[in-house]
User: Fold this.
Amino acid sequence: MTEVPEHLRKRAEEARAKAAAAKASDDAPAEEAELTAEQQAAASKIPAHLLERSKAAKAKADGGDGGGGAAVETAAPAAAPAAASAGPLPTGPGGHTQRLLTVVKSGSIQDVKAMPQDKVHVWPHLLVIEFAAALFITAFTLIFSIFVNAPLLELANFNETPNPSKAPWYFLGLQELLTMFHPMVAGVTIPGIGIFLLILAPYIDKNPSNKPEDRKFAVSLMTIHLMFWAVLVMIGSFFRGPGFNFVFPWEAGLFFEL
Amino acid sequence: MATDTDDEIQKPLPQRMQDSMSQLGDDIVSSQAWNSIFRPGSIFRKGYTDSPRNRSYVIMNSVMYHLHPVKVKRHAVKVSYTLCLGGLSFFLFILLTVTGIFLMFFYRPTAAAAWDDIYTLQTSVTFGLLVRNMHRWGAHLMVLTVFLHMARVFYHGAYKPPREFNWVIGVILLTLTLLLSFTGYLLPWDQLALWAVTVGTNMMGYTPVFGDQVRFVLLGGVEIGTDTLLRWYVLHVLMLPFVIVIFMAIHFWRVRKDGGISGPL
Assistant:
């Protein structure tokens, strides 16, 4: 989309605001008066003198020789005098021999894409925010890492299975499903379908609107989906003890390593 | 003094030093090496003039403006709209790359050496423990930010035309993030790593039809061992980062080509 420079856009906006204000003060006294022809003409956005000229030309043509005379008169005024009945040559105020057929408003034929857009420069507006975000996340990770150590348990030992054995936290929802379904269903089919549906989401959801009130079904479905996994992950993380049995963390303690 | 011609007026020493310094500076900035580093229009180039041509060069030849457009919608810089989640995921990826390179200097991916290397890293390498902590917490955080980024994009309906394909790439990136995190999980070779990966790969072994083959390829054998460690190490430090960087490049490029980030609700 063509972009209008910011200073020009601002200038145009100011001019428009000024014009609107002036028009408001002009219109106020004229409100009682009935709608005149001039105002009608103004409403149609065709200049009044052009409208009058075309009206006069039309009347003249009707009063003339009828038939196809009007077209001939306007198209070839030099050849007309012989055939013309009464009246002078159909000329306009300035002696012009053409007349207004129609006014083509901009945008009615051509797709004018010079819509002003509210834009800001990437530098500094966006880059400052990005830099602050990068700084924040680095500082957060650094400070968190100073106070909390990553776990390093004892050396891997094939002969000693810890109880419970847990997958990384983001797979604990799947491990939780393992307690309810056959491994092929829980470990492959359900996550596979989940990823597949997620990929297809934009092709399934044909609703063009992105307003929350227009897409209640999509939003509730996604919320249920996200909550489903969140709850499963939390149960798997905090409420599963030895033997992957259900426990309460405040009674049996926490069986969870990040 | 002796080399100067007789009629030249002798300048004071500070003046001469200043002259030779500015001569040296001119020589440097007009050298081939200098001009090969800084593209035309760069403010570090000699003879920058404020001409329309030079101004357009500044934009065309700047790295930043190849990642970003020159201008964005005012709406796009509102932190309350995106929470910068996609950006945070990318920053975390960079943080993980930097800390991961550091860790690679002290780590050998064999069953005999891996755990000892991590232990030595934590106890006798300067900042070793801190950098390992940052790598691990950063990894968990990245899984979280990628996930939240996906939720944000869904709730804004930002996957709708023309951004459908970028959503597909996004889901691939989510999967790759999970795989990167999971392959890194085995590398410390402690009890936590071994048994978490055992649970995970057992699950993948239930893939229909070719489950055993999937498991064999992942483990580099019938059970977890030193071959698995090497395999997952290469996946973790080389192959998956390589793949994810390609997809990230497409992802960022499509954000621009699809008209910037999605508009207001």
